[in-house]
Design a protein that fits this description.
There is one protein chain. The chain is built from 7 helices and 12 strands. The chain is of the alpha+beta class. The strands form 3 sheets. A 4-stranded antiparallel beta sheet has the order 1-8-3-6. Helix 4 crosses helix 5, helix 4 crosses helix 6 and helix 5 packs across helix 6.
Length: 217
């Protein structure tokens, strides 16, 4: 089973190393940054969820779904002259941010911050590599099952009946994440529900993680 293609929560060490920041609020659907409005900040999600995408030649690809405690905006730290990444609030979100200059100065003061940030970036690269292999190795039904199992293992809360509950995602967001259409995702979710692998409503998705993983060929 591939490693989860999701942002890893930063360690408490990283939280201690970064300067304290007040939360900034974004409403659902707000563009936090985009190629037309690039940012040179590092962000941390304090509440809610953020979709990070890449849009080379106007063909959007969802790279990551970032949850509470996750970092995003790392390309802003290296002052790229051309940026194709964007971040959009999937919910009402709260984030903290640090400018590239602030991060550089903090690394000069405490080089350990640079080490921890590098560890985070390497982990994200490994996850993206796993995700790309997943796209090649599995057909669409298995990719959807993999995504649900990974989301549950990374962000879910176990329930007494053996399911793991995650916050609901729109069918469109899940479709973008696995590289298919909304209609296909709707069909597959209905199929998985009829098989007893998931339960879902507008607020949540309950996932039978073990059952899904065993069913993936």
């Amino acid at each position: 089973m591939p490693r989860p293609a999701l942002a890893v929560k930063p360690t408490s060490e990283l939280l201690d190393l970064l300067p304290k920041r007040s939360a900034v609020e974004f409403s659902r659907g707000s563009v936090i940054y985009s190629p037309l409005r690039p940012s040179h900040h590092l962000y941390m999600v304090l509440a809610g969820r953020v979709k990070v995408s890449s849009t080379p030649q106007e063909d959007e690809t969802v790279c990551r779904l970032v949850f509470r405690g996750g970092l995003f905006g790392e390309p802003g730290l290296i002052h790229c002259s051309v940026r194709d990444d964007s971040a959009v609030a999937l919910d009402a979100v709260s984030v903290a941010s640090w400018s590239s200059e602030e991060v550089e100065k903090q690394i000069d003061v405490n080089p350990r911050l640079g080490v921890v940030l590098c560890q985070q970036i390497v982990q994200q690269c490994l996850e993206l590599s796993d995700r790309m292999r997943n796209l090649v190795a599995f057909k669409t039904p298995e990719r959807i099952m993999n995504a649900l199992a990974q989301l549950a293992r990374t962000t879910g809360h176990p329930a007494p009946d053996g399911f793991t509950r995650i916050e609901a995602l729109t069918h469109q967001t899940l479709a973008e994440f696995v590289g298919t259409s909304r209609e296909v995702v709707t069909f597959q979710l209905n199929r998985l529900r009829s098989l007893g692998y998931i339960r879902y409503s507008r607020q949540f998705i309950d996932v039978a993680v073990g059952g899904l993983e065993a069913a993936i060929k």
